[in-house]
Hints:
This protein is of the alpha/beta class.
Amino acid sequence: xNESLDPLRLPRHVGIIMDGNGRWAKSRGLPRLWGHxxxxxxxxEIVETAGRVGIKALTLYTFSTENxxxxxxxxxxxxxxxxxxxxxxxxxxxxxxxxxxxIGRWEALPLNVRRExxxxxxxxxxxxxxxxxxALNYGGRQEIVDAVKRTLxxxxxxxxxxxxxxxxTAPLPDPDLIIRxxxxxxxxxxxxxxxxxxxxxxTPVLWPDFNSPQFINALLDYQRRDRRFGSA
Length: 232
C-alpha cells in the first residue's frame, strides 16, 4: 500500500489524538491501564511507519492538562508507562534518526519522567529524520496564553506572525493533517491555533487497534483532498 502514496503530496506535519485506550480495555474486561500499555505499542508502530514513508513531523497528544482529573492510580500507571517507553525505545528511535521534542508544561511531570525525557531528547537532538513531538501536560488554550505572554515579554507587537513564532510547536509548520481515533469529532484542546486550516481524519478504530495500514489509509485519504486554505 505504501507504493500508492505520492511522496510529493505527503503532509509535512501530522498530529494524532490517540483516543480509546480505556474503551478498548473495558470492552475486553481489562483494567484501563492495559489499554494504555497496548497503546504504547501502536505509538512505536506509527512512529516507525511515519519516518519510513517520509513524514517530517509527527505530534502525539500524549497527556493533556485535563488528564490530571483521572484516578490517581491511572495517572501513576501512565507516568510509569511513559518513563519505561522512553527508556526502552530511545535506542530504536536513534537508529531511525528520530528527533524528540515536547510541548506543554511538562516540567510539572514527575521527576523520573522528566529525567527520562531529558535523557532521550539530548541523545536524539542531532538527528535529522522525523521530528517526534510529545504533547505532555498540554492544552491548546494554555499554549495560546503562554505564547501571548512570550510575545509581549519579547517586546514584539502582537500579531498572527509574532504569536506563531512563540507557540510551543515553533518552528514546526502547522499540521496538515490531524487524525483522531475512536470516532469522536472534536479537537479536545489540541493544537487549537495551529489547526486553523488542518485537514481532519476521524476513524472509529480505537487507538490500540490503529495500525500501520490504517495510518497509510489516512495519508491516502489526505492526498485525495483539494486543500484551498479558505479560498473558493
